[in-house]
Design a protein that fits this description.
Length: 707
């Protein structure tokens, strides 16, 4: 699978953004957080825009029925599938991909709620990259003005909402030497590196000649391309990657410049994805994915390296990076999500500290090895230095051929690379500067080890800070666990759906999303039952059971009062609640009027149905409901529905309408009053925040809604 440290390169990010230009002009349907470290911007895109490039987008538009969507997402696809929903996916600190909609949690995180407040139904005007850096800018317009989401795909990653150059809210507050990521502060981009697309030959030549690194490392830093791409440039130029840049001819430099720009341009415009593997024995990409032996995905075709060529670059990127997203779904509990994120960060920081300290220790041991071989090295340095001074480097190089310990000579830096065996018989390579004595060379290694330890100290401080934050969250979780240690009530089969019991004793059920809508109607709508649906965008399909018992027996004619309550239930469970309108309409029909069979030229999305014949419409249904404690088959349950359904069987209930009081806080208060888990209350509530207008049998603290 994708290595934990695998990150998209600047070139591949440029390729991704180049292809995502087809999404410009799309509307933001919603924002989600499928896993703690993955965010998705769900957009509605004209299908014809994607169909124009089937080789790139075919994998996300070829089978509409396979896209899992919630009921609130369905109606936008009416009209013969004119639009398709896609998730622009930000893998924090790693990658940017495009895919079919993720399965998302019911309860969004605080940051997601914040972004939704500003950006739902906004227009995606542009997607840009900051130079060739791993920074993405989403330009969005709303009725309230223009906003930007800046997604940073380096280190731990970050997402920042910006308006008029000022940070509105970041996912993480961060402090750097050159900038500060904090609300109400000006947004400053990280220090930018070279953009190879804009690099000029004159500057390229100057940087190459002035470099003190070998060729391949110089290309990485000068051109700003990945190491493997730099090696590919050297191969195509037929120049040794370890060459000294000072020895390159003008013709060599011009060739390297041309090939460097060529490989970038070819990558950015490539439709196919190159997926590299640690196990070339696999027959195809699917087999490698299943066995999780993938090493890298890129738009660059490196020669002589095992590769699976995916037909679509975007598909390859999605399948490669989404492996990690499938491992763990985000919890409905924001505290749990944050704890998991911090624990992952802690492990990464711990590994980094360990690696840095181990490297520093190895460098220090090389300094000690120099002292352990003091006499030999003193003689060698003196001999080589005198030979160089009297006869020149050519003679030194010639004589070195007869000294097995000397492995390489770096003339510009006056360095000789020697191999020394330690007491345990292990060989070590050392760079010795012949202009320094033994003490000076040993000091060079000690100073280098000291610098590495100082850097490690900073990483250790960050590690300790993360550890403290984890402990704080764990203590907070324990406190909450103690306060919420309430035994759940008995779970009934119908709780897979939205539900209530009518005042006449009939079970009314509504779908929670497109999948459960489909399942509810196909499995539970029988002869004698009734189907109800609100005449409003994003309403659930509802089934009214004719039975007066949960086992399906004692079937009777459903009275008008129950049908009216079913329509009321359908209305308050629709997005009419979220829209905070005063009333809505709904209708009921017979089972025989409900169909999935479309007329020629029609398209019926998952979770939607075609209604034929007369609809029994009920107008001016108030968007108001009640939640309270009821008894079902001798078991205490929490039920939400029209006031008449709750008041007919409960003496403890609260009447609510759409409002400003947060749904989660309201659920927590109800849970305390009724002594049930908060999750049970959240599972039955309508889709939006509330205002309490009346309470029966409960001393409700109305002032809490204003706090």
């Amino acid at each position: 699978m994708a290595r934990p440290d695998q990150r998209i390169s600047g070139i591949d990010l440029a390729t991704t953004i180049h292809h995502l230009q087809a999404l410009k002009g799309a509307y933001v349907d919603n924002i989600y957080q499928p896993t703690p470290e993955i965010f998705s911007i769900r957009v509605n895109v004209l299908r014809e825009e994607l169909s124009a490039e089937p080789e790139l987008f075919g994998y996300v538009i070829e089978k509409k029925e396979e896209t899992e969507q919630k009921e609130e997402d369905i109606s936008f696809q009416q009209g013969q599938g004119k639009y398709v929903k896609l998730d622009i996916t930000i893998h924090l600190g790693k990658a940017l991909t495009l895919r079919k909609p993720w399965k998302v949690p019911d309860q969004p995180s605080a940051f997601v709620m914040f972004l939704r407040k500003y950006l739902r139904k906004s227009r995606l005007n542009d997607i840009q990259q900051h130079g060739m850096d791993r920074v993405v800018i989403f330009e969005l317009s709303t009725k309230e003005g223009d906003y930007s989401i800046v997604a940073e795909l380096f280190r731990d990653g970050n997402m920042v909402l910006v308006k008029d150059g000022i940070i509105v809210h970041p996912l993480f507050t961060q402090h750097w030497k050159a900038r500060e990521i904090k609300a109400k502060e000006p947004f400053v981009f990280p220090p930018s590196r070279n953009d190879p697309r804009k690099l000029e030959l004159e500057q390229f030549t100057t940087d190459l000649i002035a470099s003190d690194k070998d060729l391949v490392r110089t290309l990485v830093s000068t051109v700003n391309i990945p190491g493997r791409a730099a090696e590919e440039v050297c191969k195509r130029a037929d120049i040794e990657k370890g060459s000294n840049t000072a020895d390159l001819s003008p013709e060599d430099i011009t060739l390297l410049f041309t090939l460097s720009k060529e490989i970038v341009i070819q990558a950015v415009t490539n439709h196919k994805g190159m997926v590299y593997t640690d196990s070339p024995s696999h027959k195809d990409l699917d087999e490698a994915l299943e066995d999780e032996t993938l090493d890298e995905v890129t738009a660059v075709n490196y020669k002589n390296i095992p590769v699976f060529e995916a037909p679509s670059y975007l598909e390859a990127m999605d399948r490669f990076f989404s492996l990690e997203g499938k491992e763990e779904e985000v919890s409905d509990d924001p505290l749990e999500n944050e704890l998991k994120r911090l624990e992952r960060r802690y492990q990464m920081q711990k590994d980094t500290v360990k690696k840095k300290e181990e490297e520093a220790q190895k460098v220090r041991e090389l300094g000690e090895l120099i002292y352990a071989n003091y006499q030999k090295l003193d003689t060698l340095i003196d001999t080589i230095f005198r030979t160089k001074e009297s006869m020149g480097w050519d003679e030194v190089i010639e004589q070195a051929k007869n000294i097995p310990a000397i492995k390489d000579i770096n003339v510009p830096d006056s360095l000789i690379t020697i191999e020394i065996t330690d007491e345990d018989g292990k060989d070590h390579k050392l760079d010795i500067n012949i202009k320094k004595d033994v003490n000076g060379n040993a000091s060079t290694y000690y100073e280098k080890a000291k610098t590495m330890m100082e850097k490690s100290a900073g990483a250790r401080t960050a590690l300790e800070q993360t550890e403290k934050e984890i402990e704080r969250l764990k203590k907070e979780g324990l406190k909450r666990q103690k306060s919420q240690s309430v035994a759940p009530t008995k779970h009934f089969w119908f709780e897979s759906y939205k539900w209530c019991i009518s005042s006449d004793g009939h079970l009314i059920m509504g779908g929670k999303d497109a999948i459960s809508n489909e399942k509810l109607v196909k499995k539970h709508l029988k002869e004698g039952d009734r189907y109800a649906h609100a005449d409003y965008h994003g309403a659930p399909s509802c089934v009214v059971k004719s039975s007066l018992s949960l086992d399906g027996s004692n079937r009777v004619e459903i009275p008008e009062s129950t049908l009216s309550e079913a329509c009321h239930f359908a209305a308050i469970m629709s997005r009419a609640w979220h829209a905070k309108i005063g009333s809505a309409s709904a209708y009921w029909v017979l089972p025989s009027q409900v169909s999935k069979t479309a007329q020629a030229g029609e398209f019926v999305p998952k979770g939607a149905f075609i209604i034929r014949g007369k609809r029994n419409l009920i107008d001016h249904i108030p968007i108001e409901g009640a939640i309270g404690e009821v008894m079902i088959d001798g078991n205490r349950k929490v039920m939400f529905g029209p006031l008449s359904t709750v008041s007919s069987r409960s003496s403890k209930y609260v009447v609510i309408v759409p409002g400003q009081f947060q749904k989660t806080k309201f659920a927590n208060m109800v849970a305390k009053y009724l002594n049930v888990p908060q999750e049970e209350v959240l599972s039955v509530l309508p889709p939006g925040d509330v205002t309490v207008i009346r309470a029966e049998g409960i001393e409700w603290e109305f002032k809490s809604e204003q706090e």
